[in-house]
Write a structure and sequence with these properties.
Layout (H helix, E strand, L loop, with lengths): L1 E2 L11 E6 L11 E16 L7 H12 L3 E10 L5 H19 L6 E8 L6 H14 L4 H10 L8 E9 L2 E10 L12 E6 L5 H11 L18 E6 L13 H23 L7 E9 L2 H13 L1 H8 L5 H9 L11 E6 L2 E7 L2 E2 L4 H8 L3 E7 L5 E8 L3 H8 L4
Parallel strand pairs: 4-5, 8-9, 10-14
Antiparallel strand pairs: 1-6, 2-3, 3-4, 3-9, 6-7, 7-8, 10-15, 11-12, 11-14, 12-13
Helix pairs in contact: 1-2, 2-3, 7-9
Length: 408
Amino acid sequence: MEIKTNGGIASPKGFMAAGIEAAVKYQNRKDMAIIYSEKPCVAAGTFTSNVVKAAPVKWDMKVVEESPFAQAVIVNTGIANAGTGREGMDCCEKTAEKAGELLGIPKESVLIGSTGVIGAQLPMDRILAGVEKLVAAREHSDTAGTDASKAIMTTDTVNKELAVTLDIGGVTVMIGAMSKGSGMIHPNMCTMLGYVTTDAVIGKEALTSIIKEDVVDTYNMISVDGDTSTNDTLLILANGMAGNPEILPGTPEYEAFKEAVHFINETQAKRLAGDGEGAKALVECHVINAASKEDARTLAKSVICSSLTKAAVFGHDANWGRILCALGYSGAEFDPEDMAIYYAAFGKKILIYENGMDAGYSEEEATEILSQPEVQIIADMHMGTYDATAWGCDLTYDYVKINADYRS
């Protein structure tokens, strides 16, 4: 597997993209994107577990579950089209109809994505005009993929895109991705908005199994603020244009493709966590030697979700009591008198808690570690052989500032 430099969502064969300014909510910036495949695609996805689901989530779930294929995605930022009732669903249908008409494909093959303020109705005149501009601007290029990845940003400080190549049966297969998310990130079966494209030949059942299994240890293991969005969506489209032998479960090719998808998803998930609203540091909690895989995941996620731990990292304060507390209320059973906690960064690791008490660490060393842009917390549970990793960010003053006037 090789990482494609500057590659993104439009890297695989047959995929085109664009990002344009439609003034949906923002001015003087790109705020609508398209992903389009020359050939019909097998589609799979995972979506928010929030009972309150945005209109585009409901639309996409229906397309993924019922349509014979998907071929395009239209995304807008600034307005989430959530809490918008029947009108919100009508907006999805009108957008899909317009894209389908211009692209010559069924509206049922057009997926819709929205992100931004909840409760506002979409300005459909701008959305439909934006669709026209997107269809005209789409192209197969790295630049087009980058434009699309920038067009789906809200409070993100950087765009997030990636592409990899791998060999499947002697044929080069490519996987591309773009995602966005900075706040209201506490996914369950999803991310904020994530899109993956591939030119691989693979069936819907196999693709669905891979994506649903993989989110458990990637996107579902990140948290910025503990809020599960109404719009969380992760979609993967495969158009088969690489011409490789079909990827079948139980084969080495399946495992290789699965590993590549995992790399894509984990990398993008970490980027989302590290770009949390106002964040200064990516925080990773690695739980080792837990009694079960589920316990390991639960413990790691509990630490990452702890506001007190996040604030301590921001303050470069080696307050291990907050970590221990978060482990303790996670719901997983362990013996606090027989475990250890470490801080690590830039290749350096220090023991801070062991066997029920302070380990006598250097405050200066701990502060140095906690001052780094990527900080790792390691919890050795001394219970078994299972491990898991979760990712989040520190909690800064800017997080409150950004979210106090988000609708302004």
